[in-house]
Design a protein that fits this description.
Keywords: NADP, Oxidoreductase. Helix 2 packs across helix 3 and helix 2 crosses helix 9. The protein is 30% helix and 27% strand. It has two domains: 179 residues, Quinone Oxidoreductase, Chain A, domain 1, CATH 3.90.180; 126 residues, Rossmann fold (3-Layer(aba) Sandwich). It is of the alpha/beta class.
């Protein structure tokens, strides 16, 4: 029997249940994958709490890496024995094995481990579209990045440095500041004791930044707007603190600025675009230009504890669950 973490209700970490499950054989267009490592993402918290409503009961998790054990009719791009990763498709990654749509699967280069893949597929593709698709950033530009010591933040900062983009990163502690700087963040702002927009203005000669990348949401929204230069762009790609409210006149008052709330699915829905972003990211990882930091490892059955640490802001880099 397979094992999985499942939800029968929404709420806090204690509602996560460790259960035996029947996996079955893959149908047409499907594959069965045995997981070797599973990614923990803040979106998992949204599903658990009900912020992202889904029918219950349900599995949890959208990212994992493992080996294909069986394929259904019509599946040609992966085969039994292939090492794969994924970060889309239906919930259910918090499991020892599962059946899922085969078109979600991405073949892993031999040089990338299962743990690295589970820790970075979603974060790497997110950093890829933020840096390569959202705005025409150029070498010499300066941007503001919230949660700079998080999983996306550490990948983003390294990649931005490769592109010649200067990153101002917000962090909560000296420990996280040290980690962020080591991964390419040029200037650090301690958001709990410093005024973020004021510090951004100081660091940019009073101008502000052309783009703010904000995965925090409600708690940082007004400060993000105030950190932009005239006609700048606020990219809210996550809402860890909640969904901000918006009076559209705020965009005018902030200097005729722009706002977008992108989602990864819209940047990897086209297989060709997904492959282009994936190839660029994995290329940086295999060459050593980008290091994937796994800050925490938990047994899959201890997913509730991993959720508590993530929500409390006590994690750095990526967190993975091990079956």
């Amino acid at each position: 029997m397979a094992q999985a973490i499942r939800l029968h209700e929404t709420g806090g970490p204690d509602i996560l249940r460790w259960e035996e499950t029947e996996v079955g054989e893959p149908g047409p267009g499907e594959a069965r994958v045995r997981h070797h490592a599973i990614g923990l993402n803040f979106a998992d918290v949204y599903f658990r709490t009900g912020l992202y409503p889904v029918p219950l009961p349900t599995g949890l998790g959208v990212e994992a890496a493992g080996v294909v054990e069986a394929v259904g009719e019509g599946v040609a791009h992966v085969a039994v024995g292939d090492r794969v990763t994924y970060t889309s498709g239906p919930l259910g990654a918090y499991s020892t094995e599962r059946v899922l749509p085969a078109d979600s699967l991405i073949k892993l280069p031999d040089a990338i481990s299962f743990e690295t893949a589970a820790a970075s597929t979603l974060r790497g593709l997110t950093a890829a579209y933020l840096l390569r698709r959202i705005h025409p950033l150029q070498a010499g530009d300066t941007v503001l990045l919230h949660a700079a010591a998080g999983g996306v933040g550490l990948i983003f900062a390294q990649w931005a440095k490769l592109l010649g983009i200067h990153v101002i990163g917000t962090v909560s502690t000296e420990e996280k500041a040290e980690i962020a700087r080591a991964h390419g963040v040029r200037d650090v702002i301690f958001y709990r004791r410093e005024n973020v927009p004021e510090r951004v203005r100081e660091l940019t000669g009073g101008e502000g930044v052309p783009v703010v990348f904000d995965s925090v949401g409600k708690d940082t929204f007004e400060g993000s707007l105030a950190s932009l230069k005239r006609r700048g762009l606020l990219v809210v790609f996550g809402t860890a603190s909640g969904v901000p409210s918006l009076d559209v006149n705020q965009l005018n008052a902030a200097g005729s600025v722009f706002l977008t709330r992108p989602g990864l699915a819209d940047y990897i829905g086209d297989p060709a675009e997904r492959d282009a972003l994936k190839d660029e990211f994995f290329g940086h990882v295999t060459s050593g230009r980008i290091d994937v930091t796994i800050g925490q490892r938990y047994a899959l059955k201890d997913a509730a504890e991993a959720h508590r640490e993530l929500e409390a802001g006590r994690t750095t880099g990526s967190t993975i669950l091990l079956p």
